[in-house]
Amino acid sequence: MVKVIYFVPSDRTVQWAVPQKLDTQIKKVQTLFADQLEANGYDRKTFTLETDDMNMDTLVVHFVQGQYVDSHYHEDTLKKIEDEIKTRFDIETDVYIVVVDVSTERIDGNCGIGRFEGGPVLVPASGECVEDDYGIALIAHELGHAFNLVHDFRSDTYFMSYGFDRTVFSACAASLLNVNPFFNNVGNPTNTSATIEMLTPLTYPANVENWVSRFTVSDSDGIYQVQFEHTDTVHGSTLSDCKKLDNVQTATVEFILPPDMTSVNRLSIWIRVVDQNGYVTTKEFILEATEEVETTDTSEIITYLTLSYNSPDSLVPINSRNEWDSWLGHIWEKTPDGQVSKKPPYYITHPYVDVWENWFYAHAESRFVYDISKKEYTRFECLFYIAHPCSTITKTASMEFIGIADGIEIYNSSVLSGVAEKLKNRHQISFDIPAGTQMLEIHITEALNEGNCDHFVIGNPRLFSIGTETDTITETIDTDRTETYLTLNYHYPDALVPTNIRSEWHGWDAGVWEKTPNGILSKPSKGFMDPALSQQFYDTWDHFFYSHAISKIVYDLSGGNYARFETRFDMPNPCGSIASVELIVFADDVEIYNSGKLVGRDTRNIPISFEIPENTATLTISVTDAGDGNGCDHFIFGNAYLIHREMPESITDGNTDVNKDGVVNVIDLVIVAIRYGEIIVGDQYPNPDVNRDGIVDINDIILVTQDMPAVGSAPSHLGDMDWDQAYRVLPDAVVDEGIAVLDSLFGFTIPTKTLLLPNYPNPFNPETWIPYQLATPSDVYISIYAADGLLLRTLDLGHQQEGIYKHRNKAAHWDGRNQNGEPVSSGVYYYSLTADKFTATRKMFIRK
Hints:
Strand content: 25-35%
């Protein structure tokens, strides 16, 4: 059932006309959904509204007086109101439309906001966002999110877009609504999550057209629909395609990525499986470009002025970031490569989002200082738009655009107003730059007022120079670094993100803040430290993350060979001198570093460094409150890096590097082994005939192993090699065949001790392999436990001889199911090996 709440802050007057307005609008939305399902060929049905028991035609509107004043609800509105209403209403069972009476007439700067899978959804009680047909479209859009509809920008006429003429639901959206539980009164049927696996690589050729991605999807509840959603350079993400299926339990589906998306270096896609009961399972995949991506041609003698786009044809400001925007640092930017940074909390839509090649959005007072000393620039041009979020005449937005060359004012726009019709509220700005200018400053003032309405967008800002043509510059993706970043959410080949759940990263309500290596800065929901502190260290650090004790952050190191951890550790100490923490680090659950008690007044930008044991699979960073339980224990890791162990010297010549990747390793060994006994004529690629004597034999295998730094002598040590490296590159069957050949030739060395080894892959979904080695013959059992210690599954591997059970045809295999054959959910699990008198336990992580 859909229910309605009218929410009024404690210091605002109730508008008694609002309930009647809601009765009219929301019933129109109810009818709209029925009309759209009927128009798409489905039964005429819609969601149920809560109405008066005595008069079924009257909508019930619950009145809630907020606990706080109006200004409290101007930021982080959804969470604050959610916390207040959930004590009185069952927001897990019913969908709630919360109409919020705030003076901004916006919800966090948006017209509306809503949660997936049942809401609640929030819209303002008054203002232009909820007037007439636009208000009906807004409520339909936000309710769509509660009914599991995602944004769909394929047409401006779709309700799930941001268009001004939203009139229809797409065929895909109508299809999903047809099985949505709120449209069918089916209660809460048992739901089993779908499994989603990508069959094609997580890479794509840059700028390729019609790139096809293929997936296997399974759901025991029956698959009704599969959706394909991808990163959108303008809006963040959008639905791209969806396929209707006929109640099958397993299917293979293909989707084509839009051509404009393959022009970026990295993007996210989401596969959403809808079952016959309307429940949705979503899985994200991060994709990377594999070829060179061409940047903007610098021969046009145009230089872009940007905030974060470091390129030969762009300039970024040299002054402190906190001067760019006088309003809580809420910066938003579209760079010349089409990338759009995450919208600030007070996001104001402007009509040129996808029209202007690049722009940046901020708030007066703002200063941007550019060093233009390296080239002779002659002219500056840009477009200027006033977002004008305030609808009353007493809060009219007004600004001045001032250009300053080496401290001297060279341009003044006079007062620019935001009262004009929105689509006409655009100003063209152009001025000449004096010869020899070293510093160009752009200053946006508040002009006539000091209100909160002075939002602005600078579009296509560029400098024109008298330079000469240069060759086109291309930039490739750097995936070969000697350092790896430790971050919270920066997915990239040279960065690691935590494998444990977000709620463990901090001991304080959503207090996580991060600057990623690409310069994007996020902000915690509350408790943001004094901005003046950021000038001291944080602007100079390439990246950092800020949180609050007690905090546990876990990284999977099994994919790399790391030697050392380095960081700068800082305590902003917001409570004077009483903050204290203790930093403890574990390698595979063994403590390897303990800082002792760190006190806020003494712990500013201190260096921390320690060695990491070889073959460490899991690194756990634990920040405790040092036993004082105080609420002031904020901390920051600045420039947190893992330093790789010294890699073996690259092989540039020589035949032992069979696949010519620069390193001799097990991959080369497998390639030779699977061709064992073949006659080789001429030179081929890859050529397994290492000594070029015309036949692949034991001499070729010995030559490869002698050049492998991990072996360096005889093949009798093959059993200790990192076969996972080969499995990551070559098909499983190929590696298994190579190992079988080598095993028949040499046999494996018997281990001197019994060990439980790290599972792979980890994280995984849905299956993983658990390797181990036995020093003596034993009966072997693998037990799988939930995080609370509940035994989920026992793998009885029977009696095993001594040896190494590491590669996939020998290691224990777990399919991610419990003893009853049911898939387990995402989270942390433990696996224990029992062999004779030996017992050991390790941790693993399922991510769906």
